Amino acid sequence: MIDEKMCFAYRNGKCGVLKVKKCEGKSCCFFKTKVEAEEDQKKVFRRINSLDPATRKNIMDLYYGGKMNLLDEVEVD
User: Could you name the domain of life of the organism this protein comes from (predicted)?
Assistant: First the structure.
């Protein structure tokens, strides 16, 4: 059985991603487990890693505070 506590965004009975009063559980379109969220993040980093260096740097500066080392752990397919 899947409940809202298994969602990656569940924090103290609330959603840490959306501005909603109550967690909607597995019926929420943003629901995913922590493992699924980690896999999605790896896919994002693989995609960013596959881009040219200038674009990669721009994205990492804009969305990840310039932390280029986040890309080091991900291999490009």
Answer: Bacteria
